[in-house]
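Go through the following before class.
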Amino acid sequence: MGYVQIDKIMQSPISLEAGKKLQNEFSPRNADLDKLKKQIADKQASMDKDLATMSETDRRKRSQELSTMQIDFERKQRELSEDFNQRKNEEMSNLQDRVNKAVATVAANEGYDLIFYGSAAYVGKDADITDKIIKAINATNP
């Protein structure tokens, strides 16, 4: 019998690599959102400053522009969140597949009849095969 600490795998460089990949993939869009948020704040500050001297038509026009920008910002923020969650789920699924393949490989190569992951009341050091699984995943790094 063997036991795999999934938490340890999730904190290993294998998992952190996936997190860095996602961060690099989404950082340009995050930067664009930050830029748009600043533009909205600057436009709002400018409008607040000029409010006393603005005509009603000008105020409505600028207010509408701000409203349109805010709606665009919220839409882009929602899309980014949805895309990020989808990619995160894909990466986690990929990692889980790699873990499962590594477990199957270690089990077959070393003659394990039963391997657990998840919770356990007690796991002795001889039953913990997490490091073997991490090595097997690294050996098959895509």
Summary: The first helix runs from residue 6 to 10. The mean pLDDT is 91. Helices lie at 6-10, 13-50, 56-110, 130-139.
